[in-house]
Amino acid sequence: MKSADVTALRRDLAGQVLLPDDAGYDGLRTVWNAMVDRRPAVIVRCASASAVATAIRFARAHGLEIGVRCGGHSVAGMSVPDGGLMLDLTPMAAVRVDPERRRAWAQGGALLGAVDRATQPFGLATTAGNVSHTGVGGLTLGGGMGWLARRHGLTCDNVVSFELVTADGERVRATDSDNSDLFWGLRGGGGNFGVVTDFEFRLHHVGTAALVADLYYPAQDAATAMRAWRDLIPYAPRRATLTAWAGTAGPWPFLPSELHHRSVVSVGLVWVGDPDEGREQVTALRAATPAAAEWIRELSYLELQTMDDDREGHHQRRYWKGHYLRALDDAAIDAFVARGAPAGTDEPALLPAASLQAYGGAIADVADDDTAFAHRGALVEFVASAAWTDPAEDEIRMANARSFGAAIEPFASGAYVNALADEGEQGVRRAYGAAKLARLGVIKHRYDPNNVFHLNHNIPPITGG
Ligand code: FAD
Q1: Residue 21's domain is classified under what CATH number?
Q2: Whose CA is nearest to atom 27 of ligand 1?
Q3: Ligand 1 neighbours (beta carbon < 6 A)
Q4: Domain with 147 in it
Q5: Is 227 within a domain?
Q6: Could you report the per-residue pLDDT of 127-167, keeping only the tens digit for each?
Q7: 79 φψ region: left (φ > 0), alpha (ψ -120 to 50), beta (else)
Q8: Would you say the pTM of this structure is higher than 0.90?
Q9: What dihedral angle (degrees, nearest 10) is formed by the CA atoms of 300, 302, 304, 308?
Q10: pLDDT tens by residue, 348-387
Q11: What is the number of domains present in the chain?
């Protein structure tokens, strides 16, 4: 890449082009996971679909690997190409709402919080993830699980149309009737087919109120509480998402001090709607065994959608292992409570925390064949997540997260593509299964036969579609 080429790109693009010595370069290559430290040869800040097309053509002409950045939350750092061209969509972050038609249009670089902030003044929302600084782009294209999913489907189930720029720089629209094969693939198939510049979402009236309940147990009581919690999942109303968490307690004021810094488990729920109705659901949770502490809070939907923003903030080193489970038998619960700890471990500080989030409801109403997203029959999603700051702990933190993942794997039915880290091809197979992967491969071949977009959980192109 010669400097004259970059000058020409700057002229053609009418947008910002950053090289490694430019001010702002380091900020833009920095993503959510502090383990990711890659240096693109060039960062192109795209403010329009035509800028995206120009950047793609430039990258291909110069043999540069492309990384597409929206929220930058892929735990594997998929948006940052080492030595390649980072296509930064963050200047395309606008969201527009039509409350009468119950539609929202989000640009390809928008964050989830922008969608919630634009829709909530009308009491509307669409399913979004649980942390507002996550990108609409990556989350929606992989599926999109959130507190509204059991009532209104995954985020991808709420997409009405996608506007896409392909590997050839062409603009394509995908809906149920236009390019319906692409529409199928984009709902779960990730960033494999091109760069989405606009998402059109269906909105729902959800009001503005929510309730979160967590009941905490010391490790020795946790299995009993979790079995009762598990038995409630099939009967929970769709406004409720049952949750469980296993981790190391902080010095939290609501928890007895003897549990501080010990392994604890919480079971609970997130309720979107009238908090009093949500409280009625908590009564059933209490029935199994007395909790050591309860933490119940009423909050607005916007507060719910941002309550984990700081805890899940940037600048920490991160590693994940995720699984889907179609059932949660007693042995799986025991493994969850044990946190994958080596026998005799009495020091929980270095162990990862893990969450379980219930699926079902509207997620399972959609026929498996209707979207690329698989695993609609999951009972719960498991994610073990390690977060730390000292690079000297990298090995032990990742090893412990792998142990936790391995302890749950015998009970698992597959994996969520958006929770994959370094599983490679095997992870992609677990995310889609053989039949969907074959269908996705044919669509990939139609829209990106040269696998230009491969910095993702990659679907190899297959000829013969
Ligand atoms: P990026 O790293 O920017 O992109 C991820 C991938 O998507 C890359 O391969 C990129 O090329 C591709 N991509 C992004 N935008 C586009 C686009 N416009 N066009 C084409 N390709 C694109 N998932 C859930 O389902 N529910 C949750 O509640 C949830 N919570 C999370 C909380 C945190 C703190 C984090 C880190 C992740 C969470 N996730 C959740 C997982 C999340 O869905 C994935 O990490 C997702 O990849 C993030 O998307 P992004 O746009 O932020 O990431």
Answers
A1: 3.30.43.10
A2: 129
A3: 32, 68-75, 78-79, 89, 108, 129-131, 134-135, 137-139, 141-146, 190-191, 195-196, 312, 418, 456
A4: 95-205
A5: yes
A6: 999 999 999 999 999 999 999 999 999 999 999 999 999 99
A7: alpha
A8: yes
A9: -140
A10: 889 999 999 999 999 999 999 999 999 999 999 999 999 9
A11: 3
